[in-house]
Design goal:
Blueprint: H1 6-12, E1 51-52, H2 59-71, H3 78-86, H4 88-99, H5 110-113, H6 119-131, E2 160-165, H7 173-179, E3 185-191, H8 194-202, E4 211-215, E5 232-238, H9 246-259, E6 260-271, H10 276-279, E7 286-288, E8 291-293, E9 299-301, H11 305-314, E10 318-331, E11 336-348
Parallel strand pairs: 2-3, 2-5, 3-4, 5-6
Antiparallel strand pairs: 1-10, 6-11, 7-8, 8-9, 10-11
Length: 351
Amino acid sequence: MEAPCAADAVAAAGSSEPDQSLSGSSSAEPRRPQFGTRFLTDPKQVFQHNAWDNVEWTDEQEEAAKRKVSENNYPLPADMQEDYDIRAHEFWNEFYTIHDNRFFKDRHWLFTEFPELAPQCSLNHTSHQEENRSEIPDPKTCRDSGAEDSRDFPGSSASYRILEVGCGVGNTVFPILKTNNDPGLFVYCCDFSNVAVELVKSNPEYEPERCFAFVHDLSDAEASYPIPDGSLDVIVLIFVLSALHPDKMQASIRRLAGLLKPGGTILLRDYGRYDMAQLRFKKGRCLSENFYVRGDGTRVYFFTQDELHELFTKAGLEKVQNLVDRRLQVNRGKQLTMYRVWIQCKYKRNS
């Protein structure tokens, strides 16, 4: 599942300038090295570039955002909410049928923000495994999560395994396959929409010997995966957890955590509270607090750092990173400014 509107597609791409990075949201969070170089020091120069890094809001802006959200906080009737939940698969299939693959940009910023996906990381991991074979979990001891034989599942011979959940039309998967030539790499990708998965498989860049695409409902924590528990090095969630009903998020994250090897990591990038996409919702689109339905029937939630931290730690994972990216995007042609708020997380399984 991916962001289903034009402005959100920019979010899914990271920004119009994908080499720019994140910073901490508070003094307690250590600041990362900065890859971006565009910091707005003179407001008169705002239209000189397409985006500005690490834009802090004024108290007035934050209060205005809170008021806007509060004005729209009138949930739809329970029967309508249930209908959107029941028909979620239908709405996502319609979305991908309409937009096909014309709508999205490949996420080349991935390897700046998530070096865990880059060749050097997987090659180093493979070398470490060769030196420490006794530390590698035996798939035979893992609970089979849907593979007919846990010793013979897609990618069973790989030394570095990545799963992207909510792959859409492959805008994360294909950059990984093109960039990471580690012979030990195997990439899994799944989506709620069978239309999206078929688009991935029909792409000429799809390599069945290095990638396995399948349909999966992340919100169904009882649904099986075609890979055993304890077998993945990295799980990627990019603008996908926000599409789940909030009541189903915790069980889904706990299920994903079980797929990780000790030392494996979940990487997440998703919508933050008071993002422009949240503030532009009109009355009559609210399902519950900070959870909305778009005009096409797809749904979206807007997170805080604390909410995501609680979801991951309750699943037994340890924080590596939890950052807010506040960015000012600019439409120079229309002389418009747009404030985006995204959250980026990395949480690791230690045992």
